[in-house]
Amino acid sequence: MTATHIPSASTGSVSSASGPSAPARRYAGASVARRLLVAGAVSAPLWAVSALTQAATRDGFDITRHPLSVLSNGSLGWLQITTFVVVGVLAMAGALGMRRALRGTPGGVWVPRLLLVNGIAMIAAGVFVMDPADGFPAGTPEGTPASLSGASIGHMAAGSVAFFSLIAANYVLVRHFRRAGRSAEAVLSLVAGTALLLGNGWAMAGGTAGTLTLAVGALTAMLWVSAVAARASRGV
């Protein structure tokens, strides 16, 4: 008597039952990383558009006298507070994307960590609002307050952490790009980090138009990191 052959389950069915294949998992991981990097790429342009639009349109604000952070005050202060928080969340997402994009490369550990700290500090800077000062919002006495509130101290501490982590991230990117033989990107990373370092230092020293140099330095460093994230999103 001829035995009857009973077909076994196909290899594909077994694979499907046990979960996605390795290539499928890699593709899914790359897709998530790409979205995270795009979020990081959007963060700095969003900050620039929101903060500079407010700086140009809000009554009594003078970017050569007032830091952008003081925009968190007044009836429209919620706009800048929201900008801080949203941009911080996007920066954190970008940091997680950079962890995958830079994995196994020089700076691949510290760049994501520093950018994550930067994002967290941005959120904190939104939660803690800087005191009104030097005529802004309209009706505020000229000059700096005689004493600082706890919220203002918290804001300045968060801002310092945000700035120095961003400076450090740009300097680590210098090493990353140098080791990769990408000298132009290394130079741009150095310029971006130094622009913020000098801009912040000039502002802290009470230099003329220090708030403007700080704004320029911060935007330069932020926009460069966003550009790096945008380029990385095309390669994951």
TrEMBL record:
<feature type="region of interest" description="Disordered">
    <location>
        <begin position="1"/>
        <end position="21"/>
    </location>
</feature>
<feature type="transmembrane region" description="Helical">
    <location>
        <begin position="76"/>
        <end position="98"/>
    </location>
</feature>
<keyword id="KW-0812">Transmembrane</keyword>
<feature type="transmembrane region" description="Helical">
    <location>
        <begin position="211"/>
        <end position="230"/>
    </location>
</feature>
<feature type="transmembrane region" description="Helical">
    <location>
        <begin position="186"/>
        <end position="205"/>
    </location>
</feature>
<feature type="transmembrane region" description="Helical">
    <location>
        <begin position="150"/>
        <end position="174"/>
    </location>
</feature>
<protein>
    <recommendedName>
        <fullName>DUF998 domain-containing protein</fullName>
    </recommendedName>
</protein>
<keyword id="KW-0472">Membrane</keyword>
<feature type="transmembrane region" description="Helical">
    <location>
        <begin position="110"/>
        <end position="130"/>
    </location>
</feature>
<feature type="compositionally biased region" description="Low complexity">
    <location>
        <begin position="7"/>
        <end position="21"/>
    </location>
</feature>
<keyword id="KW-1133">Transmembrane helix</keyword>
<dbReference type="InterPro" id="IPR009339">
    <property type="entry name" value="DUF998"/>
</dbReference>
<dbReference type="Pfam" id="PF06197">
    <property type="entry name" value="DUF998"/>
</dbReference>
<feature type="transmembrane region" description="Helical">
    <location>
        <begin position="36"/>
        <end position="56"/>
    </location>
</feature>
